[in-house]
Amino acid sequence: MNIRVRREVIRCSKCKNDNTFFYLSDFSYGQRLINFDGYKQYAYINILEDTIYEDFKNMVKNILEKHKCKLDYIKISYEMFGITCDEIMGNEVDFIYKKKKCSFCSSSDFEDIMVEPAMICDIEVTVITHQKWEVIGIEKREKIVEKELLKRKIIQ
Question: 41-62: per-residue pLDDT in tens?
Fold first, then answer.
């Protein structure tokens, strides 16, 4: 998929290599660029149009209620949503926001001034899919979600 993004090039404070980062417009409600492969690759998802997200969110809500857990199911659903996503080039999809990391040394310290002016450009990105999740029955999906909630110590 080809999308329009803002491109910024920032120098790592530690190794002094230039890193390129892409961002969607602030007006792209529901749309996200998800980093994978050590911040070298980007994938795209529109949560508002994703057919799996609403069902997943309701499943998380129901499981939390069953365990009498009153945490924010929307935030938890979003952070866990990667378990429904197909791997991309052998990488799992992770929706938990992490600080930007240098793709050379993994540092999260960058110089304050951009290496070059920000620009708007088009890039090709992979669209996040859920083909493996879609063929799993509802009961198995619920077990996977419950197991993930236990693993994250959200439920007991």
Answer: 899 999 999 999 999 999 999 9
pLDDT digits over 10-28, tens only?
A: 999 999 999 999 999 888 8
First-to-last alpha carbon distance for the chain, in angstroms, is 41
Per residue in 123-136, pLDDT tens? 999 999 999 999 99
| Distance from C-alpha of 44 to C-alpha of 21, rounded to nearest angstrom | 14
Q: How many helices (H) and strands (E) does the chain have?
A: 4, 6
* Structure-token pair, residue 67: 């365990």
Half-sphere exposure of 103 (CA within 13 A, CB side): 14
Dihedral, 72, 73, 76, 81 alpha carbons, nearest 10: -160
Give the H or E element holding residue 150: helix 138-151
Q: How far apart are CA 31 and CA 86, in angstroms?
A: 18
Whether residue 155 contacts residue 60, with contact meaning beta carbons closer than 8 Å, is answered with: no
Q: 149 burial class (0-12, 13-18, 19+ CB within 10 angstroms)?
A: buried
